[in-house]
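Researcher: Please predict.
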Amino acid sequence: MGLNRIPRRRDPALALEQHTRMKLRTTRWLRLHVMLIAMLTLAGLWLGGALLRWAGFEALALRYALLLPLTYLLYLGLLRLWARMLLDDEPADGAFDVADVALDLADGVPVPARAFRSDMGGDFGGGGASGDFTDGAVESGLSAGGKTLGALADADEGIVIAIPLAVVIGIATLLAALLGVGVFALFGVDVLLAVAVEVALAALAGSFAYRRQREGWFGTAIGHTWRGALAMLVLGVALGWVIDHWLPAADSLPHAMKLLLQH
């Protein structure tokens, strides 16, 4: 005797999530929107840094420790605003393909790297003793002393160059790590999509009763980005400390880079 199988109904929340993701991926310039969010976030970071500097916060490490958490909150707010905007606006046909091709072409254009020049250190001429010695008997000793002074001068030149180079390498490494964390852990298409899905579901929460099953847009955004935000906070404070310690005259990251290039 066969049993009548009752077909399972498809979860409407899951259906809406899949539809929203597919629609946004195929009709939106998602990478361009993520780029705009990142630019606005960085602009907020720059403006906040200028205000803190004007208020008397000189230490870069302290400024970054205060700014990065606030900037993270700004980023979460921008995600929420952008997700709502993407869901409300009517897309233009073919816009996604055009934006993807343009961004891919932009990614393929080689950017000439600016060579770093280290013009530090003086011109050491092998001792360069200029005293007037009247005793001819010490001529051979003077020659040996000149060689010794030349060796010491070369060693001193190496120390003078090594310290700034170590600072440059440290700053470059921290900056590369910050950019990597931002690109791969914070400013991503998947994060924007996840927030947009939660916003779309929240609009129909009464029909799907999804609140007991999902985290909501804020919890989803935090879950996708808190590790990257914490890494950026640690790296940013470390970068500020390095600049404060080795380049105390620098009042900002661009100023620190300018001081390094002047050497």
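Model: The two ends are 90 Å apart (CA to CA).
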